[in-house]
Design goal:
The structure is a single chain. The protein has 21 helices and 20 strands. By secondary structure, it is of the alpha/beta class. Among the domains are: 190-440, P-loop containing nucleotide triphosphate hydrolases (Rossmann fold); 450-612, Rossmann fold (3-Layer(aba) Sandwich), CATH 3.40.50. The protein has an eight-stranded mixed sheet with strand order 7-14-8-13-12-9-11-10, sandwiched between helices. Strands 15-20-19-16-18-17 form a six-stranded parallel sheet, sandwiched between helices. Helix 8 (340-348) links the parallel strand 10 (331-334) and strand 11 (353-356). The radius of gyration is 24 Å and the shape is globular. The relative contact order is 0.12. It binds adenosine-5'-triphosphate. Adenosine-5'-triphosphate is lined by residues 196, 199, 242-243, 246-247, 250, 267, 269-275, 417, 538, 540, 564, 568-569. A motif (Q motif) lies at residues 223-251.
Length: 659
C-alpha cells in the first residue's frame, strides 16, 4: 500500500465548516455534530474537545471580532494546543494573523503561514505573522474545518457552529488534519467536455483594442487559427469549443509562445488568456509526439501551470482536458482540499501537463512523485497574484525544486489582467532577459464591456440596498463580493432568509461545499453567489450578468478582477459597487482612473472624493494617451495609486478581516 493510501485509512474524524446555502439557513450556525462545544463569547467559556482553528492574534490582543474562533481570545490556547508536528511558528511582531501553516491552503484568501510546514514547505502568507498567536497545521487538534466558533449577529445572538461529519478531514492521531475528499468523476462525454457559452456582441470590438508588444524581435501576430497551424485534433477541439477566430491576446500570444519566447502578458478579464497559453503548449507537445505513460512511477510533466485558487486551477485543467481531448497528451490537476492520494493516483496514470495550486504542487513534488527535469513550460496564471507577497516564496521554492530547469532552459509564461509595475520587476527574475511584454489595451484596465455603477451607502444600509437590487435582477446570475468570510456567510444567510436563493464560497468552506456552491450557482439553482476574494480572479462562469461589490476591496486590481466575472468574451455585464465614504475614500483616485479609462461615467461625488482624499488624489487622476506599460520602459505609467501600489497581499494583510 502506498504511503498516502495508508495515511487515509485511519478513521476520519468528520468535520465541516459552515455550510451556506438556502437549503437551510437555519443550519448555518447550528452545531452539526453536537460533540463539540463552541467558544461562547457571551459567557466566556472556552471551547473544549476539538476546539476549532486556532486563530491567534499576536501581541496577546483580544479577539474583538464578533466571530469567535474556538480558541482562547488571545490565541494562546490555540497555539499551545496546536503544537503538533507541523508546528507553526508565526513570524512574530506584526500581531494578528492566522498561522495556518498548511501548504495545501492555497487560495486567494490569506490562510497561510510562514513556517512550520512539516515537509519544509510553508503555507503561504500573511497569516503567519501572528506572533504568539499562530497555530499549527496540525491544527489545534480541532483541525481545520471544525469551527468551534460562534457568530454573533448585530443583536448579539450567538449561534454555535460545530462539526458535521462529512468525512472530509481526517485526523491521523498526529494532530495533522488529512483531507479525504474525492470529487465526483468528471463527465467523459463530448457534449459536456465541449460545453461552452457563446461569445457576445462585442467580440468583434476586440479587434479595435490597442496592442503593444515590447521587447526585441517579436514574431508576427496571427489573424486566424489556421495561421497557428495547429495539429488536426487540436484544431478540431478548438472548433468544437466554439472558437472561430482568436482574440487579440491569442493573436499575439500564440506566435510568441510558439516561437519559444518567454512572455509577460496583460489583457483584460475574459479575453481568452487561458487558450493563449494552452494552445501553443499543447500544439508543441502534440507535434513532438509527447504521450502520457502510466508505466513510470516518477511522472515528469512537460508543462507546469500554477494558479492561485483551487477553482481557477481546476478550470484551467478542464480547458486543458478539453483541448487535449482525443490526443495522447494528458493533463492532471492537483490542489488543496482534495485527497492527496487520489490526486497522486491521477498523476501516476500519466501526466504531461500538471496544473496545480502552489501548496499542493510543492507537496507532490516534495513526495518525489513528480520530477521536473523534463519541464519545458512553466506558466503562472494570475501572475501578479502568484508573485505578490503571499505566494512569492512558494514560487521561489517551486523554481528552486530539484530538477527544475533554469529559466534559460525552460519557457516561462505569465498572464494576468493586472500587472503592477513592482510585480513586473519581480517577475523579471523568473524570465529570460529577452522576454516579450504583451499589453492588450490598458494594463490593469477594467473590461469595457462591464457597465460600472457606484452607489453611495452607509455601512448600515448596505443590506437593504442589496436586497433592493436583487429584487430587480430576479433570477439573473449575480456575484456579491464581500471582504470577509464571516460576512459572506452572514450575507448569504440574510439573503436566504429573505427568500433569495443564495449560496456562498470562501476559504473556510470545505472543498466539497465550495464545489457544491459553484455548481449550484452555475446551474442556476442558486442564482446569487456571495463570495470573498477567493472567487475574484479567473473564474469563467456563464451568464453572470451582475457583480455587486457589497464591500469594495482595498485594492484596485482586486476590483478589476472582481468586476471581470461578468462581461466576458464580448458579452456585456453590470457591476454595482457600494461606496462608503468613510471606508472607501482611499480607493477613489484609482476608481476614477479605472472608470475613465473604461469610458464609464464618473459620478461627480466620486471625483470630489478622489480630489479631497489627500495629497495623492490629484496625481492619480487619469492621464491621457497612456497605453504601453512595460516596466522596462521606465515605468511611464502606473495605474496604481498609493493605495493600490502595494501588492494585493500586502494591503490585504493589513485588513484584520481578510484571512
Ligand atoms: N477565440 C475565442 N473564441 C470564442 N470564445 C473564446 C475564445 N477564446 C476564449 N474564449 C472563451 O472566453 C471565455 C473567457 O476566457 P478566459 O477564461 O481564458 O479569459 P481570461 O482572459 O483568462 O479571463 P480572466 O482574466 O478573468 O482570467 C472562456 O469561456 C473561453 O472559452
Amino acid at each position: 500500500m502506498d504511503e498516502w493510501d495508508e495515511e487515509e485509512t485511519s478513521t476520519p474524524v468528520a468535520l465541516s465548516t459552515q455550510p451556506a446555502s438556502c437549503d437551510g439557513p437555519e443550519k448555518l450556525f447550528s452545531n452539526g455534530g453536537g460533540q463539540e462545544r463552541s467558544w461562547n463569547a457571551e459567557n466566556g467559556d472556552s471551547g473544549w474537545g476539538r476546539g476549532g482553528r486556532g486563530r491567534g492574534r499576536g501581541g496577546g490582543g483580544g479577539f474583538k471580532s464578533a466571530f469567535i474562533s474556538g480558541d482562547d481570545e488571545n490565541g494562546n490556547e490555540g497555539w499551545k494546543s496546536s503544537r503538533g508536528r507541523g508546528g507553526f511558528r508565526g513570524r512574530g511582531g506584526r500581531g494578528r494573523g492566522k498561522g495556518f501553516g498548511s501548504g495545501d491552503d492555497d487560495d486567494g484568501e490569506s490562510n497561510g503561514a510562514d513556517g512550520g510546514y512539516e515537509n519544509g514547505f510553508s503555507g503561504r502568507g500573511r497569516g503567519g505573522r501572528g506572533g504568539r498567536g499562530g497555530f499549527s497545521r496540525g491544527g489545534a487538534a480541532g483541525g481545520r474545518g471544525d469551527f468551534g466558533g460562534g457568530y454573533r449577529t448585530k443583536d448579539e445572538d450567538v449561534f454555535a457552529k460545530g462539526s458535521a461529519g462529512d468525512g472530509q478531514v481526517a485526523d491521523d492521531g498526529d494532530n495533522k488534519p488529512r483531507v479525504t475528499y474525492v470529487p465526483p468523476p468528471l463527465p467523459e462525454d463530448e457534449d459536456s467536455i465541449f460545453a461552452h457559452y457563446e461569445s457576445g456582441i462585442n467580440f468583434d470590438k476586440y479587434d479595435d483594442i490597442m496592442v503593444d508588444v515590447s521587447g526585441s524581435n517579436p514574431p508576427q501576430a496571427i489573424m486566424t487559427f489556421e495561421e497557428a497551424a495547429l495539429c488536426e485534433t487540436l484544431n478540431k477541439n478548438v472548433s468544437k469549443s466554439g472558437y472561430v477566430k482568436p482574440t487579440p491576446v491569442q493573436k499575439h500570444g500564440i506566435p510568441i509562445i510558439s516561437a519559444g519566447r518567454d512572455i509577460m502578458a496583460c489583457a483584460q478579464t475574459g479575453s481568452g488568456k487561458t487558450a493563449a497559453f494552452l494552445l501553443p503548449i499543447l500544439q508543441k507537445l502534440m507535434s513532438d509526439g509527447v504521450a502520457a505513460s502510466r508505466f513510470s512511477e516518477l511522472q515528469e510533466p512537460e508543462a507546469l501551470i500554477v494558479a492561485p485558487t483551487r477553482e481557477l486551477i481546476n478550470q484551467i485543467y478542464m480547458e486543458a482536458r478539453k483541448f487535449s481531448f482525443g490526443t495522447c497528451v494528458r493533463p492532471v490537476v492537483v490542489y488543496g482540499g482534495i485527497s492527496t492520494g487520489h490526486q497522486l493516483r491521477e498523476v501516476e496514470r500519466g501526466c504531461n501537463v500538471l496544473c496545480g495550486t502552489p501548496g499542493r504542487l510543492l507537496d507532490v513534488i516534495g513526495r518525489g512523485k513528480v520530477g521536473l527535469s523534463k519541464l519545458r513550460y512553466f506558466v503562472l496564471d494570475e501572475a501578479d497574484r502568484m508573485l505578490d507577497m503571499g505566494f512569492e516564496p512558494d514560487m521561489r521554492r517551486l523554481v528552486g525544486s530539484p530538477g527544475m530547469p533554469s529559466k534559460e532552459e525552460r519557457q516561462t509564461l505569465m498572464f494576468s489582467a493586472t500587472f503592477p509595475e513592482e510585480i513586473q520587476r519581480l517577475a523579471a527574475d523568473f524570465l529570460r532577459t529577452d522576454y516579450l511584454f504583451l499589453a492588450v489595451g490598458v494594463v490593469g484596465g477594467a473590461c469595457t464591456d462591464v457597465e460600472q455603477k457606484f452607489v453611495q451607502v452607509s455601512k448600515f444600509s448596505k443590506r437593504e440596498q442589496l436586497l433592493d437590487i436583487l429584487k430587480t435582477t430576479g433570477t439573473e446570475r449575480t456575484m456579491v463580493f464581500v471582504e470577509t468570510k464571516r460576512n459572506a456567510d452572514f450575507i448569504a444567510t440574510f439573503l436566504c432568509q429573505e427568500k433569495v436563493p443564495t449560496t456562498s464560497i470562501h476559504g473556510d468552506r470545505e472543498q466539497r461545499e465550495r464545489e457544491q456552491a459553484l455548481g449550484d450557482f452555475r446551474s442556476g439553482k442558486c442564482p446569487v453567489l456571495v463570495a470573498t476574494s477567493v472567487a475574484a480572479r479567473g473564474l469563467d462562469i456563464p451568464d453572470v450578468q451582475h457583480v455587486i461589490n457589497f464591500d469594495l476591496p482595498n485594492n484596485i486590481d482586486e476590483y478589476v478582477h472582481r468586476i471581470g466575472r461578468t462581461g466576458r468574451c464580448g458579452n456585456t455585464g453590470r457591476a454595482v459597487s457600494f461606496y462608503d465614504m468613510e471606508a472607501d475614500s482611499q480607493l477613489a483616485p484609482s476608481l476614477v482612473r479605472v472608470l475613465s479609462r473604461a469610458q464609464q461615467e464618473v459620478p461627480s461625488w466620486l471625483e470630489e472624493s478622489a480630489f479631497s482624499g489627500g495629497g495623492s488624489a490629484g496625481s492619480n487622476l487619469p492621464r491621457k494617451g497612456f497605453n504601453s506599460t512595460d516596466s522596462r520602459k521606465g515605468g511611464a505609467f502606473q495605474d496604481h495609486s498609493s493605495v493600490s501600489s502595494q501588492p494585493a497581499a500586502q494591503t490585504a494583510a493589513d485588513d484584520e478581516e481578510w484571512e
